[in-house]
Design a protein that fits this description.
This protein has helices at residues 4-16, 25-36, 86-89, 95-103, 119-125, 167-175, 188-207; strands at residues 46-47, 55-57, 66-73, 76-84, 107-109, 112-114, 133-143, 149-160, 164-166. It has 221 residues and is α/β, with parallel strands linked by helices. The longest helix has 20 residues, at 188-207.
């Protein structure tokens, strides 16, 4: 547990680096307006809610900005890759846009995060949460049997994630499908194709000499 002096040191760090704390009334008002009119029912959106998208993140992730669904098409595959449609809510010239530009990123310190966007957006409207409709930019990428990309389409769409999954949970399904709670779901086949397509794409990356970075994460407790 942090002590009062630890809290003070953390706040001093935010101040020393000119990290804004909290959001202005103008930003709060814009967020409230989007909460009243979310844009999810926009008739211009392509309806992809029938596809069994899922998110795959760390167990404790709250801002779920990516989801995927993969299916076979003939001898090849189609990868649907959804990105939360933040640009719809953070519009050029708005108070939200100005604030996000000034912050540039979310800032993390032990047990504290000062987000780039208010949590009502980053963890709700601009988060592909499970079992709710969300706006997304969706890349529909067709691949041939060898994993070569043959076509790409980009659409603004309405998606409906079926589940918030973890890296470890998906790996457990791939390692031992008979004992995984993710077996027998409408997204199970998509996750199994993720391994297939992933191996094909990694082979293609090696062929093109794409540089791979070996990254490590450090957890402090």
């Amino acid at each position: 547990m942090k002590t009062r002096s630890a809290d003070r040191r953390i706040e001093d760090l935010f101040q020393d680096h000119a990290v804004r704390r909290g959001f202005s009334d103008a930003v709060t008002a814009e967020v409230a307006a989007f909460q009243r009119a979310t844009g999810i029912d926009d008739p211009s959106l392509v309806d992809l809610t029938h596809l069994a998208f899922v998110t795959i993140d760390h167990d404790d992730s709250m801002d779920l900005d990516q989801a995927l669904y993969i299916e076979r098409r003939g001898d090849g595959y189609v990868v649907y890759y959804a990105l939360a449609d933040g640009a719809y809510y953070v519009r050029a010239g708005s108070a939200l846009f100005t604030e996000a530009l000034a912050r540039g990123a979310s800032f993390y310190l032990p047990e504290i995060c000062e987000p780039m966007l208010p949590r009502a957006l980053s963890e709700d409207l601009v988060s592909l949460n499970a079992e709710v409709d969300r706006r997304a930019l969706v890349f529909e990428m067709a691949l041939d049997a060898t994993g070569q990309q043959t076509d790409t389409r980009l659409v603004r769409a309405r998606v409906h994630s079926r589940a918030k999954l973890s890296y470890n949970g998906v790996q457990a399904l791939l390692d031992d499908p008979d004992h995984s709670p993710l077996a027998g779901r409408d997204f199970t086949a998509s996750l199994q194709l993720l391994e297939t397509v992933g191996r094909l794409r990694m082979a293609e990356a090696r062929r093109r000499s794409v540089i791979r970075f070996q990254r490590a994460e450090i957890w402090l407790s």
